[in-house]
């Protein structure tokens, strides 16, 4: 399935040229916008794989739009602009832009820039998912440890016996160990 892209540029001719380049290279342009706000709304609606946009646009510039798209985890953003000055590059980095192409556009640079942008975005999302998973695992472990300690204290069980009791209740009731541990802690609070 081809990569689905939204392009945003306030100049219709630039959008047309970019769409032509993208289409020739096998990408699917699913939407076009002439300003940053429209690009954000279009991305919310269409959920593209990538948004390519100019920096200087009316209503909301490309960097502000990129920041919104990044915060809402809608799509990675590749900026396409005639301006390569350092303050803009810094703003783009802070906004979460995954790649940056300076105009005039050279067709040979488009596909590599897109592929790098998508790869970086996917790596970032994978790291986020892993961090979330590790955080949940750590939290589960803390809850199970507290419940285990409570069983050891209240019922005079060894650590291994308390763990086995939680584990057995988990299997018998088809609940996660975390759910069983939370129930033990909640029962104790009452």
TrEMBL record:
Residues 124-185 form the ANTAR domain. One of its GO terms (molecular function) is RNA binding. Pfam families: ANTAR, Response_reg. Residues 4-118 form the Response regulatory domain. Keywords: Phosphoprotein. The keyword Phosphoprotein applies. The keyword Phosphoprotein applies. SMART domains: ANTAR, REC. GO terms for biological process: phosphorelay signal transduction system. InterPro entries: ANTAR, CheY-like_superfamily, Sig_transdc_resp-reg_antiterm, Sig_transdc_resp-reg_receiver, WH-like_DNA-bd_sf. The modification 4-aspartylphosphate is found at residue 54. This is Response regulator receiver and ANTAR domain protein. It comes from Ktedonobacter racemifer DSM 44963.
């Amino acid at each position: 399935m081809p990569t689905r892209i939204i392009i945003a540029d306030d100049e219709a001719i630039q959008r047309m040229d970019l769409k032509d380049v993208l289409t020739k290279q096998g990408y699917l342009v699913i939407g076009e916008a002439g300003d940053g706000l429209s690009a954000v709304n279009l991305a919310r609606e269409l959920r593209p794989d990538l948004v390519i946009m100019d920096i200087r646009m009316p209503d909301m510039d490309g960097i502000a739009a990129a920041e919104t798209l990044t915060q809402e985890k809608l799509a990675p953003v590749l900026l396409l602009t005639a301006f390569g000055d350092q303050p803009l590059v810094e703003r783009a980095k802070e906004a979460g832009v995954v790649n940056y192409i300076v105009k005039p556009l050279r067709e040979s640079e488009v596909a590599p820039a897109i592929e790098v942008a998508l790869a970086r975005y996917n790596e970032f999302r994978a790291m986020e998912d892993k961090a979330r998973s590790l955080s949940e695992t750590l939290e589960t472990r803390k809850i199970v440890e507290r419940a285990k300690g409570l069983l050891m204290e209240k019922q005079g069980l060894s650590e291994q016996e308390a763990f086995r009791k939680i584990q057995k209740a988990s299997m018998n009731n088809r609940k996660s160990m975390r759910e069983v541990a939370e129930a033990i802690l909640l029962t104790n609070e009452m």
